[in-house]
Amino acid sequence: MGGIRNFQNIFKIEELKNRVFFTLALLAVYRVGAHIPTPGIDGEQLSKFLVDRGGALMGFFDIFSGGALSKVTIFALGIMPYISASIIFQLLTVVIPSIAKLAKEGEEGRKKITRYTRYGTVVISAIQSFGIAMGLETMANGQFIASPGWSFRIVTVITLTAGTAFIMWLGEQITERGIGNGISMIIFSGIVASMPNAVISSFRLVKAEEISFITLGIIGLLMVATIAGIVYMERGQRRIPVQYAKRMVGKKMYGGQSTHLPLKINSSGVIPPIFASSLLIFPTTVAGFIQVPWVQDTLKLITPGSVVYEVIYIILIVGFCYFYTAIVYNPMDMAENLKKYGGYIPGIRPGKNTSDYIFRVLSRLTFVGAIYLSIVCVLPNILVRQFNVPFYFGGTSLLIVVGVALDTVSQIESHLVTRSYDGLLKKGRFRGRKG
C-alpha cells in the first residue's frame, strides 16, 4: 500500500510530476530516433544479415543501443562512445596532474572536464562510424549500400556522430531536469524495449520445440533468483560504529551520541559492467564490419560466451570496481572529517589508524562486490546460452535494469520526503503566524 501511495503522490507534487514526464518524453524521443534509418542504407535487409551473421555478438551490442546497431540507424553507436570518453578522462585524472588539478577545482573544473569529455565523444564516434562505413562497403560486396564511396562514408560519419552527440545531450538533460542518471536511463530504456522481443522469441522456440517448457521455467526461476540476489546485494551495507565525544560549547554540552558509517557492499553500482561492456564494444564494433580473415578470427575469441571474452570481462569488472570505489571514497578524508567533528571508531585510534581501518574494510567490501558483479554478469549468460535462450536474459542486462530502477525509485522517494518536510514547515509557519 505504501508503494501505491507514493506512486499517487508523484502526481500531487508539481515539480516531481514535471520531472517524471520530462524524463519519459526524452526517452520517447530516443526510442523514436532508434528507428530512423541512416541515409543510403537498406536497414531491414542489413539487420537480417547482421543478426544471422553476428549471432550472440551482435545481439549483445544491440542491448546497449536498443536495437539501433543491427539496423544501423542514426543512433547506432548509442551512448557507448560517451561512456568510453568518460572512462578515458577518469583514468587521466589519476595519471595526468593537470587534469587531476582540474578535478579538484570544484564546479568550474568539472565543467571543463565535461567539455573535454564531449570532445572525446565526438572523436571516438567519428572513428567508430568511419569503421562501420568502411565495413558496410566491403560486407556482402556492398549490396546494402545505395551508392558506395566517399560521399556515403562522410554522410555516415556525420549522421552517426551527430546521433551520439544528440543522445549525450538527452542524457545530460535527463540528469539535470529529469529523474535519475540520464546515461543510465537511456541504457535502461534500450534494454527494456528489447525485452518483449526476447519473450516472444522464447515462446517461438518453445513452439518450434527447440526448447521445452521445463527449460523455460528454469530460466524464469533463474531470472527471479538473479533479481532477488541483485536487490539484496545492492541494499546490503557494512555499518562501521562511530562514537562522538562530548564537548562543551559555551554552557551547552554537545556530542556523546553513537551512530554508524554506512559503506555499501557494491558502492560502484552498475558502473563497472557498463564501463567493461563499453571497452569491449569499442574495438569489436569496428572489427565486426571489417571483413579481413585475421580480424574476424580475433573477433571470434572475444565473442560473448567464449572463455577469453568472459575472462576479460571479469578482469575489467573487478578493475573498475576498485577504480570507482577509490574515486568515490577517500579513507584519509573520511578519517580527517571524523576527527574534525570529534568522532572516532571504538577501539581504533583517530587519524592514520582510522584511515587504514576504513581502507581495509573498503578493500574487503569491494572484493565481495566485484565477485558478486562478476557472478551476476557472467554466470547467467553462460547458463542461458547452454539452454539456447535469447541473450536478452543475460545477467548484465538484468543488473542494469534492476540497479537503475532501484536508484530511480530512491531519487523519487527523496523528492517525496523533501516535499513532505517542506509541507510540514509551511504548515508550522502558517500556524505560528495565525497564533
Shape: globular
Biggest sheet strand line-up: 4-1-5
Helix coverage percent: over 70%
Second-tier CATH architecture of the largest domain: Orthogonal Bundle
> What is the CATH superfamily label of the largest domain?
SecY subunit domain
- What is the succession of H and E elements? HHHHHHHHHHHEEEEHHHHEHH
List the uncertain runs: 424-435
Radius of gyration: 25 Å
Averaging pLDDT over every residue, what do you get? 78
Layout of helices and strands, plus pairs?
Layout: H1 2-10, H2 14-33, H3 43-54, H4 56-65, H5 68-71, H6 80-95, H7 97-103, H8 107-138, H9 150-177, H10 182-207, H11 213-235, E1 237-244, E2 247-249, E3 252-254, E4 258-264, H12 271-287, H13 293-301, H14 307-328, H15 331-340, E5 343-344, H16 352-386, H17 395-434
Antiparallel strand pairs: 1-4, 1-5, 2-3
Describe the structure.
With 435 residues, the chain is mostly helical. The protein has 2 domains: 30-177, no CATH class; 226-435, SecY subunit domain (Preprotein translocase SecY subunit, Orthogonal Bundle). It has helices spanning 2-10, 14-33, 43-54, 56-65, 68-71, 80-95, 97-103, 107-138, 150-177, 182-207, 213-235, 271-287, 293-301, 307-328, 331-340, 352-386, 395-434; strands at residues 237-244, 247-249, 252-254, 258-264, 343-344. Strand 2 (247-249) and strand 3 form a beta hairpin. It is globular.
